[in-house]
Structure to design on (283 residues):
């Protein structure tokens, strides 16, 4: 399969419009049409449903998108490794979920870069499942996630633990004495669409199925700003909001008829990866 066709497919799946895709890629619209046609001929499946206002992925298209993203990631990773090999003898690729990066990993990576300037470092932020897939595809060397990897040939060990706390701005907190599950459901909850493993399942279990949240975001590091603005309540790892809790910009809201579980993060890497082991020793 032509990689340009695959990249065109990925762009069209995001924009859902042939004209905008052609403009973004600086090609003629007919080129986009031909590339998608070639992919559909090769796969033998319709990847898009044409509608009056654009296109939508078919069921087969949704399935193919996962593979297309992996192919693009692998190609980018290969090109970066080849280009960096001339200057750096070694390169460490670190995949990490945002919550762990913000609360714990940033200073470790910074110190490692300072002490080992001859080693190139690439940091990839993502969700747990995506990072573990990238680890198995050899796109990253080590993955810090909330999901343990149980697979032969890989090492998975506990990295850190944290407390899951419900937070709000002091000015906006209506439950100084604590909050019940029923009150939480009826409050304005700022939903962060991120996986905390078992803790993530706990947060989702607090709300009814198909609950309509007034606010959602997929990056846990961005929730704090909205909490400080007094827009609602949200669960976050305590270490992530330590500064705001200490300064009084945020305060903890204590659950009355339910309790939050511990958050455990894991470090996974391929057995025998000496550079990763060296990094973890330094950390």
């Amino acid at each position: 399969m032509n990689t340009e066709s695959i990249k065109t497919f990925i762009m069209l799946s995001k924009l859902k419009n042939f004209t905008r895709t052609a403009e973004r890629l600086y090609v003629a619209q007919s080129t986009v049409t031909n590339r998608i046609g070639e992919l559909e001929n090769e796969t033998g499946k319709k990847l898009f449903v044409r509608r009056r206002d654009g296109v939508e992925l078919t069921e087969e298209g949704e399935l193919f998108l996962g593979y297309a993203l992996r192919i693009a990631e692998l190609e980018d990773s290969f090109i970066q490794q080849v280009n960096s090999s001339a200057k750096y003898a070694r390169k460490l690729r670190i995949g990490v979920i945002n919550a762990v990066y913000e609360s714990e990993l940033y200073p470790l990576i910074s110190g490692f870069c300072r002490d080992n300037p001859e080693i190139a470092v690439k940091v990839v932020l993502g969700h747990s499942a995506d990072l573990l897939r990238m680890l198995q595809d050899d796109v990253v060397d080590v993955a810090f996630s909330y999901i343990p990897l149980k697979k032969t040939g890989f090492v998975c060990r506990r990295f850190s633990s944290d407390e899951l706390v419900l937070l709000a701005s002091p000015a906006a907190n209506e439950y100084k004495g604590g909050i019940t599950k029923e009150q939480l459901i009826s409050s304005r909850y700022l939903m962060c669409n991120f996986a905390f493993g078992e803790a993530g399942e706990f947060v989702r279990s607090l709300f009814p199925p198909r609950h309509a949240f007034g606010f959602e975001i997929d990056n846990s590091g961005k929730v704090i700003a909205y909490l400080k603005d007094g827009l609602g309540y949200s669960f976050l790892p305590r270490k992530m909001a330590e500064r705001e809790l200490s300064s009084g910009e945020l305060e903890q809201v204590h659950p009355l008829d339910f309790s939050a579980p511990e958050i455990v993060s894991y470090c996974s890497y391929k057995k025998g990866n000496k550079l990763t082991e060296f990094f973890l020793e330094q950390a």
User: Anything to note?
Assistant: The chain has a mean pLDDT of 89.
